[in-house]
Amino acid sequence: MIRTDLAEESASDARYQGSGFFSEKKDGVTCVRIESEEAARAIGKPEGAYYTVDVESFLLSPLSFERDVERLASVIGRLLPKKAQAPVLVAGLGNRMITPDAVGPLAVSQVLVTRHLKDADLKGFEAVRPVAAVSPGVLGQTGIETALFIRKMASLVRDGCVVVIDALAAGAPERLLRTVQVCDSGIAPGSGVGNNRAALTRETVGVPVIAVGVPTVAALSNIAVLKKDMPDMIVTPREIDQAVEHAARTVAFAVNRALHPDITVQELTALVG
After folding, report:
1. What is the mean pLDDT of the segment spanning 193-197?
2. Which residues contact 203 (CB under 8 A, 6 or more apart)?
């Protein structure tokens, strides 16, 4: 089985033909639904809905920025709580000091936070969704498991959900920085590169968890046949610095548009920079 965080790749690799599995592609979005324990075991992913959104390569100039933002926002919006005022905690996972792992922290710094405005009961903000944002770092930086940190913070959004943003691993190199996965099953940070941490799911956090991830790395063993004594390695494009910044901005604006649909991309640019 290939090493990947992308459910679409895992399903293709497993070639599962049994019940409890559904896959459809429409308008640049592939939806994979895993709806049985049997399918989950065969594919190697938890039950849930997984959307793979095709975007213009983040390695290129962001000429399709607004189009990608809107397509991604529409998918994220499908998984948010139906109640427009339900509170949301956005968490940017990963290590800001390691470029391929910096998508989450960079994205969350551009999320429009509004919880403090709602708490202040300011006139004119009655219809704004309360949003909080955190970047919890990684275990080696803080000594605290990300899942434990998020579980404590989730008490702020008991009637809402948590949206986590993270870097992912892809199986095929052509997937790197060209797709975004959105799912309602949560996330197991580091699973695609064999560095499994405690999962962030509804069961572990206490509220629904929506995961938004961008594949930035791939295992060398997925791409080439390694010599017997050669250790596996993680590879990433050489233009990763600029690409991660572009990816983080696109994801952040998509999350903002999904959470605050009445605020345009142009207005968001003025509000978050």
Report:
1. 58
2. none
Q: Is residue 208 within 8 Å of 161, Cβ to Cβ?
A: yes
| pLDDT tens by residue, 87-115 | 999 999 999 999 999 999 999 999 999 99
Cα separation, 152 vs 170, whole angstroms: 30
DSSP state letter for 80:
S
Nearest to 192 by CA among 178, 181, 202: 181
Q: Is the pLDDT of residue 200 over 90?
A: yes
Which candidate, 6, 1, 29, places its Cα nearest to that of 170?
6
Amino acid identity at 242: Q
CB 109 within 8 A of CB 102: no
Alpha-carbon span 221 to 228, nearest angstrom:
11
Q: How far apart are CA 188 and CA 198, in angstroms?
A: 6
Dihedral (CA of 74, 75, 78, 81) sign:
negative
Q: What does the pLDDT look like over 224-256, one tens digit per residue?
A: 888 888 888 899 999 999 999 999 999 999 999
